[in-house]
Amino acid sequence: MYCHPNTARYRLRRVEDLTGRSLHNPHALAGLSVAPQAPQAD
Predict the structure, then answer these.
(1) Between the CA atoms of 10, 14, 38 and 40, what dihedral angle is there, to the nearest 10 degrees?
(2) Are 19 and 32 in contact (CB under 8 A)?
(3) pTM recorded for the entire structure
């Protein structure tokens, strides 16, 4: 599936804006990558 480079940049910037974390920070990036795999609290 094709995605224009500007679209990818925009979406990554939106992730940074919505989460308040920089994707340039390795610790923040690691946290964001494991978050979808974490079990939900009831």
Answers:
(1) -130
(2) yes
(3) 0.68
CA distance 42 to 17: 27
Q: How far apart are CA 8 and CA 1, in angstroms?
A: 12
- Tell me how far apart the alpha carbons of residues 33 and 26 are, in angstroms, rounded to a whole number: 10
pLDDT, tens digit, 9 for 90 and up, residues 1-42: 899 999 999 999 999 999 999 999 999 999 888 888 878 776
Rounded distance between C-alpha atoms, residue 8 and residue 32, angstroms: 17
CA 4 to chain centre: 18
Q: How many CB atoms lie within 10 A of CB 4?
A: 8
